Hints:
Elements: H1 2-13, E1 18-29, H2 39-43, H3 54-70, E2 76-82, H4 85-93, E3 102-106, E4 116-122, E5 126-134, E6 149-156, E7 163-169, H5 177-200, E8 205-211, E9 229-230, H6 233-237, E10 243-245, E11 248-250, E12 253-257, E13 267-268, E14 275-277, E15 284-286, E16 290-291, E17 294-295, E18 305-310
Parallel strand pairs: 1-2, 7-8
Antiparallel strand pairs: 1-18, 2-4, 3-4, 5-6, 6-7, 8-12, 9-12, 10-11, 13-18, 14-15, 16-17
Amino acid sequence: MFKFLIALSLVAAQPEDSLRVLFWNVENxxxxxxxxxxxxxxxxxxxxxxxxxxxxxxxxxxAIAKTILWSGTQDVIGLxxxxxxxxxxxxxxxxxxxxxxxxxxxxxxxxxxSIDVALLYRKSRLELTSAKPIHLYDADSTLIPTRDILxxxxxxxxxxxxxxxxxxxxxxxxxxKEVSSARRAIAVGKIKFLADxxxxxxxxxxxxxxxxxxxxxxxxxxxxEPEFINLAEPHHLAGEGTIRFDGGWEVIDMFFVTPEVQxxxxxxxxxxxxxxxxxxxxxxxxxxxxxxxxxxxxVSDHRPIAIKxxxx
Length: 312
């Protein structure tokens, strides 16, 4: 309770001209019900390989809420690897986040693992004006069975310039590097297309965030310039990261902002309760929920990222 009161005091002290934005891949936030819609969904159930129970699900939701409050409470939260709206409702209603005024933007995607992206926003700060899922298609117009890009448009409560958010979780390298790389390029091209469309409609403040499943070293991200600035690139050049792979850190979670967005530098958040010692390589690593089929009790293999932007 004491930590929660501290978090609420931070919210009260937040300048009204700033907007806090967070993105986090929360790694398999499945509910505990066996609905039978995919192999992964069945795996994350009480009778599945993971022995995923309501108690474990609630522990994960509480840890996610703790992280959001630890970070000073965010006005906009992009999430990846969320099973469904029910899981999001439980996150907001059954944890300390129930004291806040978050609302949900979510659409079911064609992803084969039954995981989606989602966006949470504080109703007291932003008014939702439009939201839709953006499908991805191969060069032959075949629907790619992956996560949609979520597009949500807002106006600041009390007036001000509109702002749009794109939440991404691009195709992973599973299934072949060449195919997955081409599909990630398609996703990046779609970001550029959406930004051009938004500009033509009068929205110039655009924030694209997500798990890109690649690092800023990929030249494909240069195709977004000068329309977007990659706020993750300095972390990549400094050897920092949001995931740990073979003992090294990599930045695959990123923020891209248009020049009209007055933003702070991107921050990689390091809550101490989200990391554990890396016994194999030294240092620390993200505290995961599972290691294979073995339950560890952690939250995610990704670190959250955050920025602060001018509100009005």
